[in-house]
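Researcher: Quick sanity check before group meeting.
Model: Go ahead. Protein one:
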Amino acid sequence: MTSPFQRRSIPDYVIASPLVALLYPLHQLLLRLRGNPRLPPPDAHPIRVVCISDTHTLEWPDVPEGDLLIHAGDLANDGSVCEIQAAVDWLRSLPHPHKVVIGGNHDSYFDARSRRDEDREEPLSNGSSFAAVSASTASIRSLDDLSTASRIDWGDIHYLQHSDVTLTFPPPTTSPSSTTPLIGSRARSLNIYGAPQIPAVVPFGPEHAFTYPPRHDAWSRTVPQETDILVTHTPPQSHLDLSPIYSIGCPNLLAESWRVRPLLHVFGHVHYAAGREPVFWDEAQRAWERLCASRRSRARYSRLASLFGFLRDIFEPSGWFDAARVVIYGTLGVVWSQIWGGENSGGGWMVNAACMYRDSGKLRNPPQVIVL
């Protein structure tokens, strides 16, 4: 049986839902044609954000320069203090002025339920404080809540676990191409919130950290409204999570992203879906997400049973209406930005920054660089 974390073949997508399989490339083309979803403020300098994730003890040889480096989890494989500290030491050696890291499901030291025996300060037993942490609540408990002192030497790195940090980026004193002082540029601040929890879409073992039951809502009203950059390990549903149809992202995280609408949402976890995607928080996006959600149940069907997807697509008016919304509102967005010269505002980026290439054990997906 194919793992839900692996991309399915094109025939599988077409058989399950010909409508969304054919609409997907057009939707992606319209997104790209609309241009940058959010431009930097006119009186401030751009901030270059470098995004990586899922390095699994390995080191990318040439991380691009930038003002902010974000690692969205899975620093390690076995989650031991030794492996995590080695990855942190590598990140500390990089020259980026600001660095932010969250944990992933392989970083088990940061979740009391999943910590290796040799890394525990007290044994896991019925009488321990850790045993009282249930599977549905441990994912939303921080190290501070558990009164556990971290054994990781973070140096200048900001580690976020259901917490946030506000970083200030001073303006450059000169233009990169000259020695002329810049005039009118001001310092900028960005609020970054990080959370590591992931839905257990497969039967993860106890060594996997921060898991919660797929139907459990671990997200609603957890992200501060003022968040500019959201860093999670799991993707939201319908975005860079093997969508359409075979989506394994979290629908509650998607709803939380709609509420906050960050400039940038960085995640990883799904190696097969690495990349970036502009989001505009409009009717085209809502319609696309409805199409993906309505067909998510078909991922459980066999190929033979999925043949009924073809008939269901033909006789399902709501699907055709949403497909029309994706095309019409997406086209209007292209006309607004590329023909009328209008400026996109209020949009943002979603980035799956997984560096691990599929299940190869090698880092081949390059770091993603976003300019805010």
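Researcher: Fine. The other one?
Model: Protein two, sequence then structure:
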Amino acid sequence: MPFTLTRQSLSASRAFATSLRGKRLEGALSLDHFLQRTKVVSFYRTILRGTRRIADPVTRAESRRYARDEFERHRQVTDISHIRYLLSTGKTEWESMERYIDGM
């Protein structure tokens, strides 16, 4: 028996979908927030990969701990301009740290 949509079943399915929409989108990120989060996660991974080049295990662990603490400290920031500022500042700091690591 093929399934046919009646006016009543169509109306019920629309009402159900509409009721879910608000619940699904409550915690959703905006596109800009999603893109910034992607950049932040990518930057964090870059730092972790870069710290592999540090020969001293204590210094390597300390550098990773510092990076993790900084990211955790700013975890609740939601203002896009502030996120961009933090990302820019972090990249500048990391570039200077990389020069130091490469000189070791």
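Researcher: One line on it for the slide.
Model: The first helix runs from residue 7 to 25.
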